[in-house]
Each structure stands twice: as structure tokens, then as C-alpha cells.
Structure of Thiolase:
Amino acid sequence: MAVSTAVAVVGAAESDLGATGKSILHLQAQAVTRALADAGLCLADVDGLATAGASRFSAAQVAEYLGIEPAWTDSTFAGGSAFEMYVARAAQAIGAGQCSTVLISHGSDQRSARSRSLAGAAETHTPQAQFETPYGPLFPLSHYAMAAQRYLHVHGARREHLAEIAVAAREWALRNPAAFRYGAGPLTVDEVLAAPMVSSPLTAADCCLVTDGGGAIVLTSLERARDLRPDPVVVLGYGESTTNAGMAAPDDLLRPGSIGSGRRAFAMAGLGPGDVDVAEVYDSFTITVLMTLEGLGFCGPGEAAGFVGGGRIRPGGAFPLNTNGGGLSYCHPGMYGLLLLVEAVRQLRGECGDRQVPGAEVALAHGTGGVFSTHATVLLGVDR
């Protein structure tokens, strides 16, 4: 059996979210113990660990804190896409017999620490910084704003099309009691446009939250997963692409690496964009979503602005997107990619209450890291 069809997610959980006052390792431990309880396992069952965010030696630090000695680890730092990449590495490691039970975890105290800094990031010391820093860009916001400005210019789109992403995310968040903006009331396009301009054309409402939080998922072989719980979520396919470190390098700002990562994931799964019932797409900024949807093949270049309109991506629409409220209204603890996977798993299990997508059988989770630098796509499905 191919590796991609022999591995499943058996546990998924988030830590406390928002402004918690808890440390990174405390949040990691919360998410980990909750995910293991969800799977019916304990720390002694874990022999594989993939994690990022604690330090440059995240795997060693988290393993020590949890009191485990894993036979396999990964702490690749790739920003928000790292956790989708970890799914691929974990599936390969389990398939190769290096380990049997892999824990993927993340935690961040960014809001409590009043900082957007990511452990291990060195954005001011990279070679390309000499060409970009003199212009005073806000990292990473101004880089995404450049892509947004180019998108509006080339495709004749308007800021209202960007705003629709934030408005839809808020509607989903109002159905998610764990969301940071739960209870805040609906958001309107006019409010997004009127929010303080941060880096043109992106306002504060076009930008993700800054919160504490974390998450964890547990993977094992599908055969074992079926003994652990009645509804394992199968890893169907995965793909990734790394394109650039800075924004001075890309030949075309509107050609995201999601083109390659999505193509590889769909090919492995034997599926296409039309087979996806629910999509969880990294929404660091509103432009991230538009360009990722096009890269993944849900619509053509320049078509995402129209694709997301008419309520299509809002609750009850034809294309359920970022159903927990996303990084724009649910939470964004520095690197959000793991929580995309948590929500995808919950949707496929039918555990999402008021925001549940009826009959969801295939879910896509796509992470984006850096400044449109790293891209990773994972396809998950119910066990048939």
C-alpha cells in the first residue's frame, strides 16, 4: 500500500487561544495532551515528534519538556507551511518503519509577549535583506502588500474583492466559540476598507490576528488507526514547493508556489480541485487566499476575485473556506498551518457544530510560509 494511503490522523486538538499568559511550552503541552486524549493514546505511545516554534532546537526542547525520547524528529523551520510539510515527513517515516506514532505540535505566546517575532527567524540577516531593508518594509506585511498591489493592477480587481475574504472569515468565526472574534459581530466590506491602512492596499482588517495558541495532531498507520477510533482521517496526498526567500527574487509576484504543491498533492491523491468538500487555506492576509485559490486550481489566474463573491465562501455557500474563522478571525499564533489541519480533521469527523459542512469527505489544508516563500498542500479524507 502506498505511504499516502496508509497513514491517518487519529487525534487533533488546539490549546488555549487568545491572550493566555501561558508560555510556549505550556501551550504545546496543552495541545499535545488534548490531542493524545482525543486519540486514546498517551505520551508513552509517541515515538515520533515534529514541531516548530519553541526555539532553534524545537524538537529536542519539546521532547524534553514532554518527557519523551522519540526515535524520529523534524523541526524544519519553514514558517506557516511547516506543519503540512511535517504531515508528509511523518507519513514517510511511518511508512518506512522509523516510528509508529507521530505527534505534530506548535505553540506560540505572541500576543502575551506583544511580539510578532518567530523563534528561529532571521529576516533581517538574510542576503536579500540588503536590497529590501533600505526601503523600510514591514516584514512580512509589505511583501504581501506588493503582491496585492500587483494583483489589483494586473487583473483589474478591487479592494472590495480582498475585503470579501475577511468578511467571510468573520461569518465563520461567529459560529466558532473558540474564535478570537466570536461574539464580535459581523464585519462588513465597508469596515474592512475603512480600517487603518497599514501597507497599501492592505488595511488592518486585511491582516491576520496576533494571538497566543497552539495545536497538535497525532498520526499513525491506517491499520492501527482503525483500532483506535471509528473515524480515522486518512492522509490522501501531499505536495510542497519552495520558491523564494525575499520579494526581490521572484520573476512573477502572481505565480505562487501553491501551483506546484497543489498539483503534486492532487496527483498523489488521484483527485482534483472539484473533489474537495472543504478547504482550509492559510490566510495571513486577504491576498494570500486569492492567490492560493488560483494556484491550487480552484479557479484561473485573475478569477479568484470573482470566485469568492456572491457568498460562495461564506457559511451556506458552495465553497466552504476557512470554516473556523481562519487566521483573520479565529486565531493566528505566529505560524497557523497546524490549525488548518486541526479544523480539516474536525470537519471530516463531523465535529464542528454550527459551522459543520454537511457530508464533507475530502478536505484540503494548505500552508504558506515566509513571504510567499514556502507552500505545502495536504489532502485528507474519510476512511472508506
Summary: The two ends are 15 Å apart (CA to CA). The first strand starts at residue 7 and ends at 14.
